[in-house]
Amino acid sequence: MRKREQLLGLPVVRASDARVLGRVWDVRLSEDGTQVEDIVLQGKGVLARKGAVSFRDIVVLGEKAVVVRNCRWQRGRKQRLGSARMLDTAGNEAGTLRDFWFNENTGRVQALEMSRGVLEDLTCGRAMVQKFAWAEVGDELVVLISEPGDMISVKTSGRDA
What we know:
The longest helix has 7 residues, at about 120-125. The protein has helices spanning about 5, 120-125; strands spanning about 1-5, 10-15, 20-30, 35-45, 50-55, 60, 65-70, 70-75, 85, 95-100, 110-115, 125-130, 130-135, 140-145, 150-155. It is mostly beta strands. A hairpin with a 6-residue loop joins strand 10 (about 95-100) and strand 11 (about 110-115).
């Protein structure tokens, strides 16, 4: 299982000619939030543009680099999950989405990382939520989580998982 944050900043290399295309800028999910759709990369240079690599075109998700078949230079859709609110089954605010873990072979989202506030994060760690569903409330995307007993606290610091 890989954490989104672990990929940020890694170089993206094209397999055919070993050319560095840029660095991972973000990891976007499908509309329903269950699957990694593509990685967004920031190109090189002063007038660098952003591109997207479909998850299907990723050859290797390495520790030091991401190797890809090809890259589309385009304007991608905006990801709305940035700091999505997380609500429990009673509709109460449980925390804020901070990151997610996914299966690096299938791209399937396995768990979400939830912040319950700075103090709680520092003393207990962030919560790993494995049972969740996405919902739209007006223009806002929210995450509905199951009972607190289904959450696991994980200590995280910086780029470590």
